[in-house]
């Protein structure tokens, strides 16, 4: 028995079967982070940052939690704030999916919408200004620069992957927004197995539709991002991420979001050029249920019957 916080982490590792073509001697394994209680990988970092704030006396009763988010960390903050009894205020781009906004509202948190054209960077700058004006009102985890974000994956996700694969993991593939998942997991894997090959996945354009990810060549770099951990940076188009997201639902029974599609698209590309016996691990970052209103689930009528296969 325990609280909702005790249900965070220890997610299963799922092997892809149907959509892996051409290389049956290579495994692609997916960490099912959408099975965390709020539905995304961000539960791990939010829990670590909030509990650290309480432990160190930075978050006290009567204070409110505030941060910038593209959605998932905000939902995690809202869930944990509701569980622990803290008010939560979130700055996020106005074009964030309606499902994410509703989930945040259902947990009782408040949303301040920012310029959609400024993306997550705009929300980040706006929340910093709000904290600067009234610092005593807020506990500001600052997910983009808080070492506790990546530490949650160093101590959790990376350790779990090593245990679940019996140490057989050879490659790690991950998109990055705050970069906590990539930096913390890659660091732990490489410490235990220095030959693990880490692939950083990013959209192929600054103007993209892969929510929760950053195009690092055109954005404010998170303070917890360590580029040296990436053995390779792979770019994935929005259209390809959409396609693979639909494939995961229709062929693997995995209803996940588009950042998960980008991860699997990159893992599938990588799988074509790795040695036999390789074990590629990536993450399914969040649930597809928070994108039901997004157009990518519905192929254009003009195309007739949509072929989800490569």
Describe this structure in words.
- Helices cover 36% and strands 16% of the residues.
- It has 310 residues and is an alpha/beta fold.
- It folds into 2 domains: 4-35 and 152-303, Rossmann fold (3-Layer(aba) Sandwich); 42-139, 3-Layer(aba) Sandwich (Rossmann fold).
- The strands form 2 sheets. It has a 6-stranded mixed sheet, sandwiched between helices. Strands 5-4-3-6 form a 4-stranded parallel sheet.
- It is globular and about 55 Å long.
Q: What is the gist of this entry?
A:
This protein has helices at 42-55, 72-84, 98-106, 119-133, 147-164, 180-192, 238-252, 258-271; strands at 13-15, 27-32, 64-68, 87-93, 110-114, 138-139, 171-175, 197-203, 232-236, 279-284. It is of the alpha/beta class and 310 residues long. The strands form 2 sheets. The chain has a 6-stranded mixed β-sheet with strand order 1-2-10-7-8-9, sandwiched between helices.
CATH fold description of the largest domain: Rossmann fold
Helical region count? 8
Strand content: 15-25%
Per DSSP E runs of 2 or more residues, the count of β-strands stands at: 10
Termini distance?
45 Å
Order of helices and strands: EEHEHEHEHEHEHEEHHE
